[in-house]
Specification:
The chain is of the alpha+beta class. The protein has two domains: 233 residues, Cathepsin B, Chain A; 63 residues, no CATH class. It contains seven helices and 13 strands. Strand 8 and strand 9 form a beta hairpin. The protein is globular.
Length: 319
């Protein structure tokens, strides 16, 4: 275990696209979460938080893909390569957007970690190296991975989202000088020097305050108090001080033969109506390029740019 060395972070903030949060219904006022039903968790965290194998991103900026790997294991019980998505979604200079790994996993599938182990240590150079997929051992595409940014930021919204979805990711800001200069398990927020992604799996009461429990991607490191770092508790004070700037809700469902995607045009608003075994939902495209990208994502021929003009395929339903 590394003694008090600085691990990598790597989350790149972005501006959410209008309408994304509507998918999950959090555009209204913040829900009043019932904190009386949660557990008190005042103990020192132990390895395998949430029953998920521990990882350490070392000095790489792969935190978004570490959270994706944790969340994927939480939803499926499958441990996946973090290098594979990160090498494809990493931005110039390192790091990635919070939702980037989920677009990759949904469209391309995953590589099992036991067949494609991550580098050790996980340096930025090693984690951004494209994996050569071995014949017969390619990416597995068995799950639909959907994600949506929730623009209302509060600890109650985060807690409600954890209950409603497979898992939740937080985008947090912090500073090694102020806020994280002692404990990494129970930090506080004062200053924004870096941004980091966390996979959250539980709302708890900790030391008399509301808190969101997140699994650490620094499990081989010790904090400035010399304590191992297996979890982070982002409490109500952290939220109220503005230290949380992004919430992402993620759902993972196994793909079934009943899955279908229909091209729909309602009042000039094009999109896809997704039908699964347990229901369906309408995803509206923001513009022609978005509609095209939506088709690529779901393997549906929607529209293409031909000689500078968008050519649409016939809709399955329009009104």
């Amino acid at each position: 275990m590394n003694d008090i060395s600085i691990p990598g972070t790597g989350l790149m903030p972005r501006v959410p696209v209008a309408g994304e949060a509507a998918l999950f219904g959090y555009e209204a006022a913040d829900p009043a979460y019932d904190w009386s039903k949660v557990f008190v968790d005042d103990a020192d965290p132990q390895p395998y938080v949430f029953g998920i194998p521990d990882k350490d991103q070392n000095g790489s900026g792969s935190c978004t893909c570490q959270t994706a790997g944790y969340g994927f294991f939480k939803g499926t019980g499958i441990d996946i390569s973090r290098e594979d998505p990160y090498s494809h979604v990493a931005l110039p200079g390192g790091g990635a957007y919070l939702d980037a790994p989920y677009w990759w996993l949904d469209s391309q599938g995953y590589l099992p970690l036991d067949e494609y182990p991550d580098p050790n240590p996980e340096s930025e150079a090693a984690m951004t190296k494209i994996i050569t997929v071995v014949d017969g051992k390619g990416r597995v595409k068995k799950f639909r991975v959907t994600s949506g940014i929730i623009r209302n930021i509060s600890i109650d919204v985060a807690a409600a989202a954890i209950d409603a979805h497979t898992f939740v990711c937080l985008g947090i800001a912090g500073s090694w000088q102020k806020g994280w200069e002692k404990s990494w398990t129970d930090p506080y927020y004062v200053q924004n020097n870096w941004q980091h992604a966390l996979m959250c799996g539980q709302a708890v009461m900790r030391k008399g305050k509301k808190a969101i429990k997140a699994k650490s991607s620094w499990c081989q490191h010790k904090d400035f108090l010399g304590q191992p770092c297996y979890a982070h508790f982002i409490n109500e004070d952290y939220f109220n001080a503005g230290g949380v700037f992004e919430i992402l809700a993620v759902d993972i469902k196994e793909i079934t033969d009943m899955e279908q995607h229909f091209k729909v045009n309602i009042g000039g608003r094009a999109g896809l109506f997704h039908v699964y075994g347990d229901g369906g939902w309408f995803e509206v495209a923001a513009n022609e390029q978005d509609y095209h990208d939506m088709g690529v994502k779901y393997h549906v021929d929607t529209c293409d740019l031909v000689n500078g003009k968008w050519v649409f395929q016939p809709f399955d339903f329009q009104k």
